[in-house]
Amino acid sequence: MRCQKRFFAAASAALAVTLLSGCGSSEPSFHAKDISGLMPELSYSLTNSKGEPASASDYEGQVRAMFFGFTNCPDVCPTTMAELNKAVKAMPDDKQDDMTVLFVSVDPERDTPEKLAQYTNFFGDRIVGMTGPEASLRDLAKRYRTTFGYGEPNEEGNYDVSHSGAIYVFDEQGKARLLMRSDLTPEQMAADFEALMTEAG
C-alpha cells in the first residue's frame, strides 16, 4: 500500500511537470535575452538624418532595433551595423519592410544629419540615423539603463566615445522585448525579429 502511494505521488509529480512544460511550449523561444516588462516602451524626441524631428511614432507598427553609437567608431559600430543589415537581409522580402534599425549617434558634435545619412545609407536602406542635443541623448540612454562618455581630444581635436554595444529590440507596439549582444549571428537575430512579427500577427 505504501509503495502504491509512492507510485501515485511520483506519477502525479511527473504529470505536473509534463503539463507545465506543455503550457510553456507555445511561448516564443528567443536567442536574445527577453526583457519584456523590464524596460519602458520606445520613446524619443531627436533629429533624423534629414534634419527633421524624429519620434517613435515614425515607425509605429514595425519591429525596431535601437543601437547607440557614433560614425567615427572604429570597430563596434560598423561591425554591429553590418551584422544588423545581414540580419534584415536574411528575412523574407515581405518581412523586411516591417523592420527598422535605429542608429542613435551619441556624438552630436561631429555627426551632422548629412554625415549620419552617408553612414547609415552605406550599411543598408532599413537603417535610420538620428541624434540630438547631448541632454536629450543622456535622457534616452538613462531610460534604457545605459550610458556613454567622451574621451580627451587629441592634438587634431579627435576624441573617442565610449558606449554600450547592446541592441534594444522593440515589438510592433513599441514595447521593449529583447536585448541583443554581439555573440548572436545575423541568422539568430533575423529569427528573433521574425518571431516578434509572427507573435503580433
Overview of this protein structure:
- A hairpin with a 5-residue loop joins strand 9 and strand 10 (176-180).
- The model is unreliable at 1-26 (pLDDT under 50).
- The chain has a single domain, classed as Glutaredoxin (3-Layer(aba) Sandwich), CATH 3.40.30.10.
- Helices cover 38% and strands 21% of the residues.
- The protein has helices at residues 2-24, 76-89, 93-96, 113-123, 134-143, 186-200, and strands spanning 33-34, 45-48, 53-55, 63-69, 99-105, 127-131, 148-150, 161-163, 167-170, 176-180.
Task: Name the descriptors.
eight-stranded mixed beta sheet, 201 residues, Glutaredoxin, disordered N terminus, single chain, two-stranded antiparallel ribbon
Helical fraction equals 25-40%
Number of helices in the DSSP assignment: 6
- Mind describing the biggest β-sheet? 8 strands, mixed
- Per CATH, the class reads Alpha Beta
What is the C-alpha radius of gyration, as a whole number of Å?
A: 21 Å
**Gap between N and C termini:** 53 Å
Protein name: Cytochrome c oxidase assembly protein
Signal peptide: 1-26
Domain Thioredoxin: 21-201
Binding site for Cu cation: 73, 77, 163
Q: How do you describe this structure in short?
A:
With 201 residues, this protein is α+β, with helices and mostly antiparallel strands. It contains six helices and ten strands. The protein has one domain: Glutaredoxin (3-Layer(aba) Sandwich).
